[in-house]
Amino acid sequence: MFSSIMGKKQSKHKNNVMYSSVPNSAISDKTDLDVKRYTTVHQDAVNSVVTVGDDCFLSGSADKSLVLYKWQEGRMMQRWTGHHKSVTRVAYSPELEAYFSGSRDKHVNMWKRGTTTGGICEKVATSFIGHTLVVTGLAVGDNKVCSGSRDNSVRLWDIETGNCLANVAILRNLVTQIKWVPGQTAVAQTSEDKCLRIWDTRVLQEATTFPKKQYIQTSCDTSKDGNYVLTSSNGVGGQGCEATLWDLRSTKVVCEYRGHQQTVGGCAFLPRVSSSNEYIATCGNDSTIRIWNKNTQDCVSMMTIPGSGQLTSIAAGNDGSLCVTSLNGKLFVLTVLEDSHGQCKMQHNVQY
Known about the structure:
Helices cover 0% and strands 52% of the residues. By secondary structure, it is mainly β.
């Protein structure tokens, strides 16, 4: 499924790890007073967020709901309720114009937009029932849903019928996240057993298991070209607490990004903001959001949002926006840009 050609290492540093301070010019000078604060849409911890179209984010919360929000207008487009416990993962399918959620109630649900913009929709389009513990991974592609759980299993579902097409359980594979690999019949999956796995979704067979990391892998993202996976790690006091770039073609580690002092809860590849640099983003329990140069491993921008608490997940919009979720029930939207000197910066624009 993937070629065996090994990609070049991106750093000359020992173990491909670089520790670097953030330049002062990389910290946004936008004041806290410039931030637009809208009514909070969730009443409990926000666990997951994904991008929907060009200007919306879909979030799932411990308040048992998921919300579609148009951040530039400060407007809730839809709220879905129907889960009996915390919503742990969300996903979106542009082809189907459908929204998906996984929950502590062990169900995966598919939802459609209601007739009233900004209203509450309680009607579930389809439920995918079979997991025996909380759903902790969710991805949609090829007219299929792929889900994972703390029950050690990964399941593949038919979207039209809701039937389970395949179910594979691996001992100690407590799933933390699943992402579809663009252009491939494959998903990437992280786990509390510290492994990154690639699954062939044609038959739900484990295609590749990467070398085990030292710490639990908390989340993952896949690059748009389908060549790389980014994972994040738990940890404390700077031990662990890294993001790792993996090459799907060589099945090897490319490099690590270190600087967070506590568990890294989310990671994301960023759309290009310039023709010369590629960036990734991370957020963590240390309440910081960091932007990294993908190739040099330099932390080029860092932001701490006062009162944000632990940051749980992150999603990158096509318009240069970045949405970060927190345990305190808030979502923060930032813009990633380069100034006239080519310096990458973040601006905190919206909070809701």
